[in-house]
Design a protein that fits this description.
Elements: E1 12-15, H1 24-44, H2 55-61, H3 66-76, H4 95-113, H5 119-130, E2 134-138, H6 144-150, E3 159-161, H7 163-169, H8 178-187, E4 194-198, H9 201-209, E5 214-218, H10 224-229, E6 234-236, H11 240-244
Parallel strand pairs: 1-2, 1-4, 2-3, 4-5, 5-6
Helix pairs in contact: 1-4, 2-3, 3-4
Length: about 250
Amino acid sequence: MTELGLPAHIRACLFDLDGVITSTATLHTAAWRETFDAFLRRRDGAGFRPFDPVGDYAAYVDGRPRADGVRTFLASRGIELPEGEPDDPPERATVHGLGNAKNALLLRKIEQEGVETYPGSVRYVDAVRAAGLRTAVVSASANCAAVLRSVGMTDRFDVRIDGVVAEERALPGKPHPDTFLAAAQDLGVSPHEAAVFEDALAGMDAARTGGFGYAIGVDRIGQADALREHGADTVVRDLAGLLDGRAEGT
């Protein structure tokens, strides 16, 4: 292993954004919870079963494109909604309407609470670039570019594959590997030469099925075992652990 905690054949690092580079995962979780609870309360009344911000978030929405997250969570409750249109208003009971309601809440939370980076992740990305490896950010979020600008990290990534780019290129989102594969291709490396850094189980599934050379799970919420089960070669609580030799095992 190199001083970066990576196999010697790795030439590029592909980083998820929310929960890996920035702390926006907590804002996403809160926005999903408010959106789904409001919908379920209207549908089922006061006795509705709330959205679980740990179990439901990890299993059904974390790392997935917004509409896929809506579909997958509702399917877990046996609920099917019309797809609607991408510009459906937030109050409309469609897949896109719920997705737009969540995004409106998220943007409000970002404006009110701001976005912070994980210092260990910034340190690690800088070390990766100093070592001559190429970097990409791979995120399901359509707000990825704005978030990177807000934290001053745009210039730390050679390639950005986010929700906007995925829609333009018709790339299916995680757990499909296509967005990670596109990032590797844009960087000029094979999947085997690229390492994936993810906090989401869907992202780990994408790394495994895409044949990537190494997968690092970032455990922010106590799901180290699940990350390993979904394909993580190493799990850390923070990326700085890879520099300090504090990976939690394989």
